[in-house]
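Here is the promised in-class demo. Please do not try to memorize the tokens; focus on the logic of going from shape to residues.
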């Protein structure tokens, strides 16, 4: 036995150091008590008593640490142990900080860094730290005792480079070399893809452009990471940052700014980069060495980065919920069956995706494009949004521009020649052509070209030059079932309806968790969102975005049932709900939904009767087409011989937001204008 740093170190039989019966001399007045063998003097006796008291306190404190609810130890614990345990609990925040600092500065912790912790509590303190920080990648060796980072070498490399960067701020070339190493390490940890050709140095800024993976935040897929070669920030840096964003051809306002000063909080606000960037129009996120070390130590570095970003920006800036356009990859949920069907069978057949507005057609097409593009066996995928393409000539021009074709495509024969060439380059595998929003183009082709363009598509598919995936609504749906159409029996049809409940729950919960947003009475709120939206993907996203706005307005990160109640009764939600639900429905289709809004289920005859009673004399053929349209847009579902609303909230929203009689009068007028004289037989 020997004294070591005021602690008694006892060796076990195997001669391996083991920490037991530790005594802190200056606490108990013991200068050099001899405990092993022989009689104990009075001072030694008190030393033993003190050691026992601390050991009991350690046990009690472990219980307290594991039961943070405030349990005060087992019954029968003496006042000394209770007092010691209470003292340990009071001092825990300081001990926790000491361990954290040691990990950040060295990558490991042992007794050398715990001078303020009584020796009997070393193991318990380290164990408690590891248990309370499961988000950090740590290993605990209780036999030593010692905490280590899973990857100590990574931290060691970073600390060395970070120190070098600080010392080289006046040596541009050397500084750039060092921060390039830091950037490479950071990008590797976070899974960012860096393109060396896009890095730029401008004045005291060293920028690296990255393509980031899905962070489940509204962060652009391409943004810069900029190291500032200064010890202190300067207003000049803001002007230079704006210039660098232009030099790097950034179309977004987002960037990560790396500040070398780990203690900028103590600087004059005019020299603190975090303060300076708050007044800019850009979303500049400032990270210092402490932030980078937190990322390095984390089990999930991407999640840790998100947490740091959220500390500096408004929730509305990074909310990933999308209500217009295709959703990004990180917000794509559900539709697994549709994706598997298309990607597995695309070599053998073409597909048509049918559905109403905002039901997810474009998002699926974008996802198919990504999946097929990532396939090693396929290299030729062509995508074209045809929403503004209404003629064959416009189609050829858009294809030439978007696909960067040379020589130009000016005719059907040019298009055939280009696709055949692409197939030959693709090891004779069919080229996949993805065409979004084809209704207008298809309608024009049928009316003015007798279906020549889509006839060409059919012929090229049958010759195995290419396969198509069309997205559309009513026109595409009708032509797929019309015997005279070039699309008849051409494609496998996939009709898109509402999501399954588990997919809707993921849309609600996973982005909220990523943003650090909690939901009070979570199950109740989630149930109500699902009930209001009926799992329509766009309505789920809209409701979640509105809830984010409500929480943000209160400067909190908690959503409450009161927030949802406010949103559901708002006029903006009612208007959006009807806009999405009705979509491109006709006046007659809207009339039908209004007349049967209070009916749980109706038959074809019930609908006819309602129309007649309200003065709408609609021919059976027109009524059949209208009901088919309501089913196409997933407004009505057919069950046997009856129909019901897909959205259970539709009647409630209509009754709360609309003067039905006034709306029916307006729709009656529209129907009269749209129909040929005498067609509707309006009374």
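The designed amino acids, position by position:
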């Amino acid at each position: 036995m020997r004294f070591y740093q005021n602690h008694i170190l006892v060796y076990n039989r195997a001669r391996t150091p083991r920490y037991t019966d530790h005594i802190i001399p200056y606490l108990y007045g013991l200068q050099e008590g001899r405990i092993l063998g022989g009689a104990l003097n009075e001072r030694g006796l008190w030393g033993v008593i003190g050691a026992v008291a601390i050991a009991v306190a350690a046990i009690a404190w472990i219980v307290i640490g594991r039961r943070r609810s405030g349990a005060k130890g087992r019954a029968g614990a003496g006042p000394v142990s209770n007092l010691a345990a209470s003292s340990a609990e009071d001092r825990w925040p300081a001990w926790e900080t000491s361990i954290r600092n040691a990990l950040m500065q060295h990558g490991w912790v042992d007794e050398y860094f715990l001078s303020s912790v009584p020796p009997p509590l070393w193991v318990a303190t380290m164990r408690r730290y590891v248990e309370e920080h499961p988000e950090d990648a740590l290993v605990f060796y209780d036999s030593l005792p010692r905490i280590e980072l899973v990857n100590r070498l990574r931290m060691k490399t970073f600390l060395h480079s970070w120190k070098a960067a600080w010392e080289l701020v006046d040596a541009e070339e050397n500084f750039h070399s060092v921060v390039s190493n830091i950037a490479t390490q950071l990008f590797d940890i976070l899974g960012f893809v860096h393109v060396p050709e896009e890095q730029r140095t401008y004045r005291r800024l060293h920028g690296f452009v990255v393509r980031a993976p899905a962070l489940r935040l509204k962060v652009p897929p391409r943004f810069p990471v900029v190291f500032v070669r200064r010890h202190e920030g300067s207003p000049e840096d803001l002007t230079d940052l704006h210039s660098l964003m232009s030099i790097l051809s950034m179309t977004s306002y987002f960037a990560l700014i790396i500040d070398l000063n780990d203690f900028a909080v103590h600087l004059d606000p005019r020299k603190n980069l975090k303060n300076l960037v708050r007044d800019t129009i850009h979303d500049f996120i400032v990270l210092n060495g402490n932030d980078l070390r937190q990322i390095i130590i984390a089990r999930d570095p991407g999640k840790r980065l998100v947490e740091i970003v959220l500390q500096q920006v408004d929730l509305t800036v990074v909310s990933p919920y999308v209500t217009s356009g295709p959703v990004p990859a990180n917000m794509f949920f559900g539709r697994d069956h549709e994706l598997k069907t298309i990607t597995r069978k695309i070599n053998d057949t073409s597909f048509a995706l049918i559905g109403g507005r905002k039901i997810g057609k474009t998002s699926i097409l974008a996802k198919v494009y990504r999946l097929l593009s990532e396939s090693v066996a396929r290299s030729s995928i062509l995508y074209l949004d045809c929403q503004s393409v209404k003629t064959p000539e416009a189609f050829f021009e858009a294809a030439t521009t978007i696909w960067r074709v040379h020589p130009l495509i000016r005719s059907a024969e040019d298009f055939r020649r280009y696709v055949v060439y692409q197939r030959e380059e693709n090891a004779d595998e069919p080229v996949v052509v993805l065409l979004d929003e084809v209704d207008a183009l298809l309608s024009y082709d049928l009316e003015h070209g007798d279906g020549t363009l889509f006839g060409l598509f059919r012929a090229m598919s049958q010759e195995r030059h290419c396969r198509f995936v069309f997205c559309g609504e009513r026109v595409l749906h009708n032509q797929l079932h019309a015997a005279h159409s070039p699309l008849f029996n051409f494609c496998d049809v996939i009709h898109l309806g509402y999501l399954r409940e588990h997919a809707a729950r993921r849309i609600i919960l996973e982005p909220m968790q990523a943003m650090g947003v909690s939901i009070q009475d979570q199950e109740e709120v989630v149930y109500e969102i699902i009930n209001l939206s009926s799992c329509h993907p766009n309505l789920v996203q809209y409701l979640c975005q509105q809830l984010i706005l409500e929480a943000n307005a209160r400067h909190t990160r908690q959503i409450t049932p009161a927030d949802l109640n406010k949103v559901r009764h708002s006029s903006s939600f009612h208007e959006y709900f009807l806009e999405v639900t009705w979509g491109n429905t006709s006046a007659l289709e809207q009339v039908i939904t209004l007349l049967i809004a209070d009916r749980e289920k109706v038959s074809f005859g019930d609908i006819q009767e309602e129309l007649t009673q309200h003065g709408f004399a609609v021919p059976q053929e027109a009524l059949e087409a209208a009901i088919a349209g309501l089913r196409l847009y997933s407004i009505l579902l057919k069950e046997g011989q009856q129909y019901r609303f897909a959205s259970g909230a539709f009647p409630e929203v209509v009754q709360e937001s609309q003067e039905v009689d006034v709306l029916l009068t307006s729709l009656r007028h529209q129907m009269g204008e749209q129909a040929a004289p005498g067609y509707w037989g309006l009374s």
